[in-house]
Design goal:
Length: 304
């Protein structure tokens, strides 16, 4: 266990009191920050972000929990294995294995888990692949990947155009994003934010810093390619076997985002979990950045 030399000043400044470390998990470096005492809680970020997306939520949760903020493989300052033709390197199964391995090496055989966007999809697979490891799960602004792909509409394809763009082969998205990573990150996040909200400039700069690494771009494209291939196969297999989330599930979504407009989130999740509750928040897609107080309250009430 070491303190990574490339931990950013932004992370240290925006997460005071957190320890910034890295852990080797089966050959993949996982970058993380940790603070607090009490029951363990792992928070996973979405696209195109890193662990800093939890900066306004994590300190309050650390009053009652040992909070771990981790960068997913391929993102932030975590390791970036080369994508493979089989789609396994960035399958959610592989990404979930990193995170459960991190928590076990920290001494936590059981923990609560909350994820946003891609992190929520990793969290969903983690619970399925590691029954009993997660005591409570919260997913922010998603419905299951399987449901999305089995219910593609014109509205979904427009709202989630990046799902299909990033999955394009022949190096097309890698080359286009690499030409101007800052433009890509800003142009993607802007329309997904709720009315009148934004992302702090220093945090946006750190997201762009990470996406200025061609390895991050390639990894994130591999992540989205896996979603519609390897991940979908895993999800169909699990669903056909009747396996469901085995712990209480909290679902939060933004009223101004596509999840709120395009789905009935609680009804959808009831097909995938037995114990489901949740609520709509007056936000766009980036709930922890747009309404951190509401997210914190909802998580604290749920986690107990």
């Amino acid at each position: 266990m070491t303190t990574p030399a490339d931990s950013t000043a932004a992370s240290r400044a925006l997460l005071p009191g957190f320890e910034h470390r890295s852990m080797d998990v089966e050959g993949v470096t996982v970058n993380y920050a940790i603070k607090g005492s009490g029951k363990p809680l792992l928070l996973l970020h979405g696209y195109p972000e890193n662990h800093l997306m939890w900066r306004h939520v994590a300190p309050a949760l650390a009053r009652d929990h040992t909070v771990v903020l981790a960068d997913l493989r391929g993102y932030g300052d975590s390791g970036k294995p080369a994508p493979d033709a089989a789609g396994l390197a960035y399958a959610k199964r592989s990404m979930a294995r990193d995170q459960v391995g991190l928590m076990r090496q920290l001494g936590f055989s059981q923990f609560a888990l909350a994820g946003h966007d891609r992190g929520a999809r990793v969290a969903h697979r983690l619970v399925l692949d590691h029954p009993g490891a997660v005591t409570r799960l919260a997913v922010l602004d998603i419905v299951p990947t399987r449901h999305v792909f089995h219910n593609v509409t014109r509205e979904m394809a427009s709202a989630y155009y990046h799902w299909f763009f990033l999955a394009t082969g022949n190096g097309i998205p890698e080359r286009m994003i690499g030409a101007d990573p800052g433009y890509w990150v800003r142009s993607l996040t802007g329309p997904l934010l709720g009315q009148g909200t934004g992302i702090d400039p220093e945090v946006m700069a750190d997201y762009i810093r990470c996406f200025s690494d061609p390895r991050t771009i390639g990894a994130s494209c591999a992540d989205y390619r896996a979603a519609g291939t390897t991940d979908l196969a895993h999800d169909d297999e699990t669903f056909a076997a009747g396996q469901k989330i085995d712990c209480p599930l909290l679902v939060l979504w933004g009223a101004q985002g596509f999840v709120g407009r395009g789905y009935a989130p609680l009804r959808v999740w009831q097909q995938y979990a037995a114990d489901v509750r949740g609520q709509e928040l007056p936000t766009g897609h980036f709930l922890p950045e747009e309404a951190p107080d509401l997210v914190t309250t909802a998580l604290r009430d749920f986690l107990g």
